[in-house]
UniProtKB/TrEMBL annotation:
Lineage: Bacteria, Pseudomonadati, Pseudomonadota, Gammaproteobacteria, Lysobacterales
Cell compartment(s), UniProt: Cell inner membrane
Main location (coarse class): membrane
Residue ranges the record marks as coiled coil: none
Organism for this UniProt entry: Dyella japonica A8
Assigned GO CC terms: plasma membrane
Record field: transmembrane: 54-73, 101-126, 147-171, 177-197
Name this polypeptide is given: Paraquat-inducible protein A
Short name of one Pfam family: PqiA
Keyword S-adenosyl-L-methionine applies: no
Keyword vocabulary terms for this entry: Cell inner membrane, Cell membrane, Membrane, Transmembrane, Transmembrane helix
Length: 210
């Protein structure tokens, strides 16, 4: 038996949710139907959700490669110039006596993006195949991806923080490098991808993509 049970869906009850303010409205079956609260157009499903989410997810992964290969910051201390990638920066934070910050940056910069790629890919593939497996758990996974997306910018904030530390004398100079731009693009695009994916497709399977 499916974990969704035999409960009716919103469409069966003549209801439709607003994509913007989340108000549950009566489905009036009109092309120009609008939300009575915010005035946004009402749609049963986000248009071309699969195609747009896949495109954004692939683009984010492409940007994630140079984000890890290219240096994200340059530190100059006592004449010693170091260009650090994400991983080398994490190692340097650990060696310089900031293991807590190193763990936080590793989690936000390496673990979280990879988990988002895997989670969104899993949601896309399982929904396109019409899988009825773990419907509630997959819906919770989507909400988790949305929640943690905003914390993925932490690595960019760390570079800004290290730059600010110059005035306190910890470093003589800190400069952001191109890698941080690619990482920022990765974070933004994955956030847009999670917003583009329609979680109701988890429950619909193949039937309602548009």
């Amino acid at each position: 038996m499916s974990d969704a049970g035999n409960l009716p869906r919103a469409g069966d009850l003549g209801l439709i949710g607003c994509h913007v303010c989340r108000l549950v409205c009566r489905d009036v079956e009109a092309e120009d139907a609008a939300c009575p609260r915010c005035g946004s157009p009402l749609h049963k499903r986000k248009s071309n959700s699969y195609m747009r989410t896949w495109a954004l997810l692939i683009a984010a992964f492409i940007f994630y490669v140079p984000a890890n290969v290219l240096p994200i910051m340059r530190t100059v201390s006592l004449g010693d110039v170091d260009d650090n990638t994400i991983m080398s920066g994490i190692i340097e934070l650990w060696v310089k006596g900031s293991p807590d910050l190193a763990v936080i940056v590793f989690t936000a910069s390496i673990i979280v993006p990879m988990l988002k790629f895997v989670a969104l890919g899993l949601l896309l593939v399982s929904s396109q195949q019409g899988s009825r497996w773990a419907l509630r758990q997959r819906s919770k996974l989507y909400r988790l991806v949305e929640f943690i997306g905003y914390w993925s910018m932490l690595d960019v904030f760390v570079v800004a923080l290290l730059t600010a530390l110059v005035q306190f004398g910890f470093f003589s100079q800190v400069e952001p490098l191109p890698g941080v731009v690619f990482f920022g693009l990765t974070v933004v695009i994955t956030m847009i991808a999670s917003m583009t994916f329609d979680p109701r497709l988890i429950w619909d399977g193949r039937d309602f993509d548009d």
